[in-house]
Structure formats: C-alpha cells, structure tokens
C-alpha cells in the first residue's frame, strides 16, 4: 500500500477527488487496494520459513527418565535427556550418541550430502535429520535456539530478499512519469491563468491533466502479465510463489544449482559390477526393478552371485508406493536390492541367517552367516586386504572411484567366521565375488537444458555439499564443466567476497563442493555484487538462507524440504533442472510483454497530451481537441483491455537466443518508439484530423468555433486516437518484426479485447448523454474516414521504421 507507485496513485486519487472527479478517485483507490491485497497474500505465503522450520521437529520423542521409557513432547526436551532413536525417526534436538546399533542418519537437509552417514558412539547427530536405519541411545546437548538447525534459521532471517529488477525499473519509470505529470500540470495551470481562467478553474484544469497522465492501468497490467507468466510456468512444472520472480527469471545471468536431485535422479543405482569373470554393465531406471545386464554370460552369472551375497547383508528395500518405486532404508542398500532383482536373484530367507555383524564406522563392513557360509559387504580398502585376489580388483576399484562411482566390495568364505559379533579375518581368507560401482545418475534432459542456458548467456555453477570428485564427474558428464572449468571446495574459497565473485564468474562452468549454508550465502552475495542476477536452487534446510538471498530462490517440490519450499520464489514440482530453462524462457517473454504494453501506454500519453500542448503554445488560438474526461475515457475505457492482452503475448521462438536483450525496462529504443515514432504519429494524425474538420466548418486560426462544430471535431480527434491505438497494439506486439510478419490473428485475447473496445468507442461517441458528458460528438463520415486512414498510416509508419532497422526477427 505504500510503495512508490501506490503512493503516486494515492496522490492521484486525492487530486481527482479535489478536482471533482469522484468516480475516477474511487476507481484508483480500488486498483490500489486490489493490488495491495494480492501482493500481501503473495508475501505472506513466501515469508513462512520460520514456521516451516519449527514443523521439522517431531511432536513426540521417546526418552528414558528415572529408568523408565516415556513419550514426551519434543518441546519438553532438556539438556542431558536420554533419547531413544530408531529407523524412521526425525531427530528432535542436537544429540551426542551414547550407544549405537547399525545407525544410519540422512543429513542431506543440513549438509547436502546425498549418502546417509553412519555415526559411531560419541559422534553428534542434529535436529531435523532422519534416522534411516538402526537404533541408538543419545544424550541431548542442545535444544531450540541452540541447535544447528536454529543457526540456519537465523541465517535465513538475516538474508535480505533483494528487490527484483522489474521493481527497480518500475520505480524509476514512475519517478519519471510523476515528474512529467507534475511539470505538465503546473505548466498548464500557469498558462491557463495567463489566458484569463479563474484560479479555481485553472487549478482544476491542471489537476485533471496530472491525473490523466498517471497510467492507472499500468499496475493491473503488470500484475496480470506476471500472473499469466506464473500460470504458464505452472504448466511447465514451475510453481511461482512471488509474482515478480517471473520477470526476474528472465533477467537471470547466473544459476547456482544443487547436484543431488536437480542434475541427478536422487536415486542411488548400480551402474557397473566388476567380477573375476569380467565386467557387467547394468541398465535400468531409478528404483524400478525392471532392467537388464550387459556382459559375458559367465560374468553376469558371477555378478548374480555377488548380488545374492550383498542382499543377504542388507536391510534396505525398494517398495512400490502408489505409481512409483521408492526407497525404504539406506539408498545404497536399496540400490543393491534393485540390482539383485534385475539379475533375477531371489530374496534371502531370513531363517537361513544365523549370525549378523552390523556396519560400524570403525570396521566399515557388514556380514552375515547364511547356509553355513560367511557373506561380507563393505568398503574395498577394508576388505580387499583379506581377499584372495590379484591386482585386477584393486585396479577396478581405482577405475570406478576415478569416474565418480561409490564403490563396495562383496566377498564370501565357507564356514562361520563370526565370533562375538565380529569377523575373524586374515589374509586370503575371503573370496572376492565382485566390486560394485554405484552412482546417483544424471537426469536425461539436463545436458540439453544446460546447452540452452549457455546459448542464452546464462552462467552455471554446481554448489553442493557432496564430495568434490563425485560432483566433478557428474558436472562433466552432463556437460556443465568445460575444459577451463573450476572445481573448488568450500574451505578453499577466498575470504574476500570480491575475490570470490571474480573466481566464480567464468563461462566454462564451476563446481563448488563441500559447501556450508554460510558459503552458499556468500556465493549469492558475491555474484550479485558483480552485477549478476542470481538464481539459486536447493532442496534442504541448509539451502534456505541462500534461497532468500538470491534474486530468485528455486526449491525442489518433489524432494525438497518444507523450509526450502517456503523460502523460495519458485518451486520446481518435478525437480528437473530443465524446468528452470522453461521458467527463464517465460520470464524473458514476460519482460518483453511489459515493454510491449509500456510502449503502448506511453504512445497514447503523447497523443493525449498533444492537444493541451497545442492549446497552450497557441495561447488558446487552437481550441482543445479533447478534454480531460475524454483523456480518462481513453486511458480506462479504450486502452486497458488491449494492454492486458499485450501482457499475455506468447514468447517468441528466439527469446533464448543470446543474453537477455534488454537490461533496462525503459531504454532509449523504447522511448524513441513510444514518443518519437508511434506517439508522435498518433498526435500529428489526431491534430490534423481535428483541424481539418474544424476548417470544414468555417473555422480559422484564433476564431471561436461553434459548439456543434467543436463537438464533431473533438469526437473525430477522439476516434483518431482510439483507432490509431487499436493499430498501435498490433505494432507493439513485436519490437522488430512487422505486423504483417507477426500476423493479426495469433493473439486471440487481443481480438476479443479490441471487439469490446470498439463497442465502448461507439458508446462514448454515439450515446448522447455519454458523449455530452465527455465533451465530444459523433464524427461525420469524413471524420470516420480520417480515423480509419490514420490507423492504416500508423501501421505503415511502424512497418517502414522496422524495415529500415532491418528487424526481421520477432
């Protein structure tokens, strides 16, 4: 209700009321209130991140107090409480682990690391994370504001959402329009006094002119254009939470994207298996068990034996949920379960398992005894030293790890090697069955999307909490990282923000790994300080501060946290990076649409102002061609609907060719088109038609025309401005292509708007009470002939100007 444009409209409403134009004053107030309420609703929804952060904590927690297990509200936890954790729990406070049994914790929302960690006794786990496997007892060391989660919340609240480029440009435009309106209004008031008008009449005349020059329809037109862009983005799986983000996306010059879930599927998958009988390559998609294997038959048979041993040691499974397969447990274990199903390996009968060794951070393996054999799976460097194998296995591990794979070794031995919960291992005691290479595979459409971004002049960086080697492999695989690209970790970033921005501002791609929330925040600020319009993607709680700091925060809708979605300006419903490209395309189209209807509005103002300037410069010798009420009728009655139709113009086919064409909403090119070409043409045609009709009724310069002659001439000038504006709306559909190339029928809402406007024009000129109130009359047939010819002349002038510029692209 109080930003610059709203304040200007408030002043216009007060002046309109003071000038006796009460209906106009009411209409302006309605516009202010409707837009204010709409903006408030959008901002209210976008600023609920703190509430979402509180929602991350569970309502009830299992604790041991006085030796008894009880369930208490999470808000009642205090330091030194003993908390019980088991698979499926969300951690309720920062905890120090006391006793641990095969515990795995998903910390991706805090760290960005895609693989669950396996903390040992004495390690810490943090509020907001998930237990995906095992159980533990832990001691509370921090609650509420003292938790790591709360620290991220404070970062989120400290980050200031920057004003959008559209907002800044509109403020600049409004200042210019306000200055022009006041200057013209005051000048005409002075001229009126010099010409003999009474002070009251001169004041009301000046006020009327000032109000007429205020573009009352601008704000609803901008709002509708953004809303239409948001609607189109929703069809492209991008949900807009803040309307001005629609246009900001079009101005984006730098995208900082997460890796997991954005560039990749966020589903661990076995890609390769090395066996002593040869390599096997797996084919499939995500957690869907349907798939196949490529390799020699003996190698595939060996891979099946390795898979059978692996699934005996794990608990994670892929389960069907509605219409898709999802992970239940550790994603790496789920990937092994999917591998076994794709190779046709049957599930293990749990009754055959007689001993079990759980994974710990010290041993880094798990094992079972099934059917009298010991089966083991774990880190290669923890198992290969006990396997009877040559150097080929070690070479396979190095090769897989070097290509960004996560590597597991699977081995077996006859007999029972488990005693007192531990394996009795010795060199050459295990038979290596295989080495498994896993990967979170990249999305299939990311490469094309990244190519489009580069063609559009948008630079890209991967900013992730994951390991540098893994992120680099994915970045190169999808084409994000070129030969001159940069790979750097968070602790290697320069301390100075200026140097940081210079380091990251490069064309060939950047990978920043092992970043903290504070790092992402600094990256957004440093790039913005270099003049970039930054879009930052994220899905975790740790991403919330950077999402708020960036010009456009983009959250993942399918896999992201509520906090990220509540903080972001844009939510990708399908998590696809390609949806960002679609959103940028629509954002650029929206920016172009705003320029289109600004050109249309400003050209009309020139034509409306010309009669007052001619009257003033001639000292009253040239009568006023149109009055203040006629100007208002043109602004509100005949201009708004076509402008709205321009605001929903579809994007052109070349909108993503090269960098954003315009950095400023209003530049010299737009001002020349609006004032020096289209507006000037309309003004000249209207004044010529007015003077020709007056002359036909015997008027000469300095004479006072009869009331009937002035009404017909004024109605003719009104018709000329209206019809040339109808032609102008077609001219404004493109800054480069002629109306004959763009076509007259490709924007159906525009045709409907013009049909309504023609009816309104007939009412304004043909209904006697309305025409008398406005001050015009029904034009003669010569007047209509002038008006129709004027519309054609305007299109020809616009076409000639575009052809001279050589603009043949839309």
UniProtKB/TrEMBL annotation:
Membrane topology listed for this record? Multi-pass membrane protein
Q: Which InterPro entries match?
A: ATPase_P-typ_cation-transptr_C, ATPase_P-typ_cyto_dom_N, ATPase_P-typ_P_site, ATPase_P-typ_TM_dom_sf, ATPase_P-typ_transduc_dom_A_sf, ATPase_P-type_domA, Cation_transp_ATPase_P-type, HAD-like_sf
Sorted keywords for this record are: ATP-binding, Cell membrane, Membrane, Nucleotide-binding, Translocase, Transmembrane, Transmembrane helix
Q: Record's superkingdom?
A: Bacteria
Q: TM spans, by residue?
A: 176-197, 203-227, 670-694, 706-729, 750-771, 783-804
Residues covered by the P-type ATPase A domain: 56-157
Could you say which protein family the record assigns here? Belongs to the cation transport ATPase (P-type) (TC 3.A.3) family. Type IIA subfamily.
**Per its record, how is this protein called by name?**
Cation-transporting P-type ATPase
């Amino acid at each position: 209700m109080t930003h610059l444009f709203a304040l200007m409209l408030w002043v216009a409403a007060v002046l309109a009321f003071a000038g006796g134009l009460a209906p106009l004053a009411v209409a302006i107030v309605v516009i202010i209130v409707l837009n204010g309420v709409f903006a408030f609703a959008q901002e209210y929804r976008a600023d609920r991140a703190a509430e979402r952060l509180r929602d991350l904590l569970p309502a009830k927690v299992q604790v041991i107090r006085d030796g008894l297990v009880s369930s208490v509200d999470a808000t009642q936890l205090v330091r030194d409480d003993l908390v019980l954790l088991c698979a499926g729990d969300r951690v309720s406070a920062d905890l120090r682990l006391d006793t641990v049994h095969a515990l795995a914790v998903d910390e991706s929302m805090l760290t960005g690391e895609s693989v669950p960690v396996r903390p040992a006794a004495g390690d810490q786990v943090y509020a907001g994370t998930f237990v995906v496997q095992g159980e533990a007892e832990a001691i509370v060391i921090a609650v509420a504001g003292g938790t790591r989660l709360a620290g991220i919340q404070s970062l989120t609240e400290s980050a200031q959402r920057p004003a959008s480029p559209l907002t800044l440009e509109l403020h600049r435009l409004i200042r210019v329009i306000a200055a022009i309106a006041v200057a013209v209004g005051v000048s005409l008031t002075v001229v009126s006094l010099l010409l003999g008008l009474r002070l009251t009449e001169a004041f009301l005349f000046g006020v009327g002119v000032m109000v007429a020059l205020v573009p009352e329809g601008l704000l609803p037109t901008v709002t509708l254009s953004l809303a239409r862009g948001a609607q189109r983005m929703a069809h492209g799986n991008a949900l807009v939470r803040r309307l001005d983000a629609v246009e900001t996306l079009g101005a984006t010059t730098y995208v900082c994207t997460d890796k997991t879930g954005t560039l990749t599927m966020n589903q661990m998958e076995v890609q390769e298996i090395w066996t002593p009988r040869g390599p096997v390559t797996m084919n499939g998609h995500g957690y869907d068990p349907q798939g196949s294997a490529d390799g020699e038959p003996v190698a595939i048979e060996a891979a099946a034996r390795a898979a059978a041993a692996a699934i005996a040691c794990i608990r994670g499974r892929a389960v069907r949920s509605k219409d898709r397969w999802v992970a239940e447990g550790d994603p790496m274990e789920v990937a092994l379960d999917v591998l076994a199903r794709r190779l046709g390996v049957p599930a293990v009968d749990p009754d055959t398992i007689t001993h079990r060794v759980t994974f710990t951070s010290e041993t880094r393996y798990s094992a079972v005894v099934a059917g009298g054999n010991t089966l083991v799976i774990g880190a290669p460097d923890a198992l290969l030293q006990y396997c009877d194998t040559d150097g080929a296995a070690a070479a396979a591990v190095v090769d897989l790890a070097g290509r960004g794979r996560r590597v597991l070794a699977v081995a077996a031995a006859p007999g029972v090697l488990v005693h007192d919960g531990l394996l009795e291992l010795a060199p050459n005691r295990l038979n290596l069955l295989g080495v498994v290479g896993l990967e979170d595979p990249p999305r299939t459409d990311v490469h094309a999307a990244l190519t489009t971004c580069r063609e559009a002049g948008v630079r890209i960086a991967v900013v992730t909490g994951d390991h540098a080697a893994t992120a680099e492999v994915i970045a190169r695989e999808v084409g994000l990282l070129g030969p001159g690209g940069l790979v750097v970790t968070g602790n290697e970033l320069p301390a100075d923000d200026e140097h940081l921005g210079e380091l990251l501002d490069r064309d060939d791609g950047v990978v920043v790994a092992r970043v903290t929330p504070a790092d992402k925040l600094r990256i957004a600020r440093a790039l913005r300080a270099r003049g970039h319009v930054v879009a930052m993607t994220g899905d975790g709680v740790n991403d919330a501060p950077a999402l708020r700091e960036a010009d456009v925060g983009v959250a993942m809708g399918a896999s992201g946290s509520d906090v990220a979605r509540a903080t972001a300006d844009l939510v990708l419903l399908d998590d696809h990076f390609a949806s960002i490209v679609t959103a940028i395309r629509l954002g650029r189209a929206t920016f172009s649409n705003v320029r289109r209807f600004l050109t249309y509005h400003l050209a009309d103002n020139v034509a409306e102002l010309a009669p007052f300037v001619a009257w003033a410069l001639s000292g009253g010798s040239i009568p006023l061609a149109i009055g203040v009420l006629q100007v208002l009728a043109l602004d509100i009655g005949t201009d708004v609907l076509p402008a709205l139709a321009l605001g929903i113009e579809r994007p052109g086919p070349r909108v993503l060719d090269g960098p954003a064409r315009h950095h400023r909403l209003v530049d010299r090119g737009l001002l020349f088109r609006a004032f020096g070409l289209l507006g000037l043409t309309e003004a000249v045609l209207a004044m010529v038609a007015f003077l020709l009709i007056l002359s036909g009724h015997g008027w000469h310069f300095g004479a006072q025309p009869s009331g009937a002659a002035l009404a017909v001439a004024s109605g003719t000038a009104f018709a000329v401005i209206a019809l040339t504006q109808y032609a102008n709306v077609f001219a404004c559909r493109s800054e480069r292509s002629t109306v004959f190339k763009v076509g007259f029928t490709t924007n159906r809402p525009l045709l409907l708007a013009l049909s309504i406007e023609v009816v309104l024009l007939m009412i304004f000129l043909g209904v006697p009470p309305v025409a008398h109130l406005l001050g015009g009359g029904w034009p003669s047939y010569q007047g209509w002939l002038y008006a129709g010819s004027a519309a054609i002349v305007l299109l020809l002038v616009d076409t000639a100007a575009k052809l001279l510029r050589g603009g043949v692209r839309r």
